[in-house]
Design brief:
By secondary structure, this protein is mainly β. The chain contains one helix and five strands, in the order E-E-E-E-H-E.
Length: 66
């Protein structure tokens, strides 16, 4: 499963994990994406399937189809 949102194109980022001694180690920060069936808020009737981040669901960019 790819960790990319199909609505807003949010993808994993690289960040530094900084210790108390200021040692820096690279780490991955993944978006909170879920595989679901959804309807785009702007287009209307067509049902799509894909990975959607929870920010797009909360912002009502997509509506989950049950």
């Amino acid at each position: 499963m790819s960790r990319i949102c199909c609505v807003c194109d949010k993808r994993p980022q690289v960040a530094n994990m900084v210790s108390h001694a200021n040692n820096k180690v690279k780490k991955w920060v993944y978006p909170n994406v879920h595989k679901m069936r959804f309807v785009m808020a702007s287009s209307g009737s067509s049902v799509h399937s894909g990975n959607v981040c929870t920010k797009c669901v909360k912002a009502r960019k997509v509506q989950k189809v049950i």
